[in-house]
Amino acid sequence: MWLPIWVTILVIKFLVDLLSNTLLLLPQQYHPDTLIGFHIPGIGVIITLLVIFLTGVIVANFIGKRLVMIGDAIIARIPLVRTIYVSVKQVLQTLFTPGGQSFRKVLLVEYPRKGMWSVAFQTGDGIQKLMQGEDMVSVFIPTTPNPTSGFLMIVPRKDVMELNMSVDQALKFVISLGVMQPCENGR
């Protein structure tokens, strides 16, 4: 009973500390503690959430979209920064765009060796005749319990087994270490 409560408290504390530490990016004379003269617990969280909200409001309108395009164009001219920024932006757009095609299907692939099966997500297809004329598919095999890390593999389409499982169910299955089994009816 206590373990879920303790983990929840730790996660919330981590997020609050992370958001509060964003104020450390400001010069010392602009810290709220310095401006007000005393420490207010949680002020970093409030300011960070307010900045995120205001950024969303600004970026959602025409002028904000133009500013983002100009910023992207500037970043696109900086060699090392361009590579990192564009890659991260593409991954985030793929994963978080509504109706996106980040994980198309839930699959089983034989990994790490023959006879052992791992849950995988189809991330792309159309990799035709990449190896000796075989139809290939790209899959992401998430690690347990952190599905954001894993392995990207390109395997022959004939070597994957499609599961009748939603992506959400498969993620719950992976995160729960296989404890949360998907329902028979696909829900």
Tell me briefly what this model is.
This protein is an alpha+beta fold. Helix content is 44%, strand content 21%. It contains 6 helices and 5 strands; from the N terminus they run H-H-H-H-H-E-E-E-E-E-H.
Q: Would you spell out the secondary-structure blueprint of this structure?
A:
Layout: H1 2-21, H2 32-36, H3 43-59, H4 62-75, H5 79-96, E1 105-110, E2 117-131, E3 134-142, E4 150-156, E5 160-162, H6 167-175
Antiparallel strand pairs: 1-2, 1-5, 2-3, 3-4
Helix pairs in contact: 1-3
Low-confidence stretches: none
Largest sheet geometry: 5 strands, antiparallel
Residue share in helix: 40-55%
CA gyration radius, whole angstroms: 22 Å
**How are helices and strands ordered from N to C?**
HHHHHEEEEEH
User: Termini separation (Å)?
Assistant: 27 Å
Query: In order across it, which strands form the biggest sheet?
Result: 4-3-2-1-5
What fraction of residues sit in β-strands? 15-25%
The number of distinct β-strands equals 5
- Please state the structural category: alpha+beta
Give the count of helical stretches: 6
Tell the overall outline. Answer: extended
Average pLDDT works out at 82
Write up this protein.
- With 187 residues, the protein is an alpha+beta fold.
- 44% of the residues lie in helices and 21% in strands.
- The protein contains six helices and five strands.
- It has helices spanning 2-21, 32-36, 43-59, 62-75, 79-96, 167-175, and strands at residues 105-110, 117-131, 134-142, 150-156, 160-162.
- A five-stranded antiparallel beta sheet has the order 4-3-2-1-5, with helices on one face.
- β2 and β3 form a beta hairpin.
- α1 packs across α3 (43-59).
- The longest helix has 20 residues, at 2-21.
- It is extended.
- The protein starts with a helix and ends in a 12-residue tail after the last helix.
- The mean pLDDT is 82.
